[in-house]
Amino acid sequence: VQLQASGGGLVQAGGSLRLSCAASGSISNFAVMGWYRQAPEKQRELVAVITTDGTTRYTDSVKGRFIISRDNAKNTIYLQMNSLKSDDTGVYYCWTAGSWGHGTQVTVSS
């Protein structure tokens, strides 16, 4: 499967962004899909995952601020990011079944 992430950009602290990840095929076949991010000079970390039944999990630092969702009809997952902080800056990647999309840059200015 090919994944295409979009929606990144430059935003002030406290602002919001919505990331999208479009898959080349049906995402209903993928039990788990998720978002990772990589900050400069840091390792890639898991941000959020969602299963086919809609169960979600988040890393502690984004709980209450980020929401992951999926639209099987559009073969797309989303990451709504609110109350953004400078620590959220990084390249965001979507992932499923061993496939990685090209990242989208998120920069939060303080």
Give a written overview of the molecule.
With 110 residues, the protein is mainly β. It is built from no helices and eleven strands. It has strands at 3-6, 9-12, 17-23, 32-38, 45-51, 56-58, 66-71, 76-81, 90-96, 99-100, 104-109. The mean pLDDT is 96.
List keywords for this structure.
4-stranded antiparallel beta sheet; mainly beta; about 0% helix; 7-stranded mixed beta sheet; about 110 residues; globular
Oligomeric state: single chain
Q: For the report, how would you describe the main beta sheet? A: 7 strands, mixed
Residue stretches low in confidence (pLDDT < 50, at least 5 long) are: none
Shape: globular
Distance between the termini: 37 Å
Radius of gyration: 13 Å
Briefly say what this structure is:
The chain has 110 residues and is an all-beta fold. The protein is built from no helices and eleven strands.
List the helices and strands and how they pair.
Layout lengths: L2 E4 L2 E4 L4 E7 L8 E7 L6 E7 L4 E3 L7 E6 L4 E6 L8 E7 L2 E2 L3 E6 L1
Parallel strand pairs: 2-11
Antiparallel strand pairs: 1-3, 3-8, 4-5, 4-9, 5-6, 7-8, 9-10, 9-11
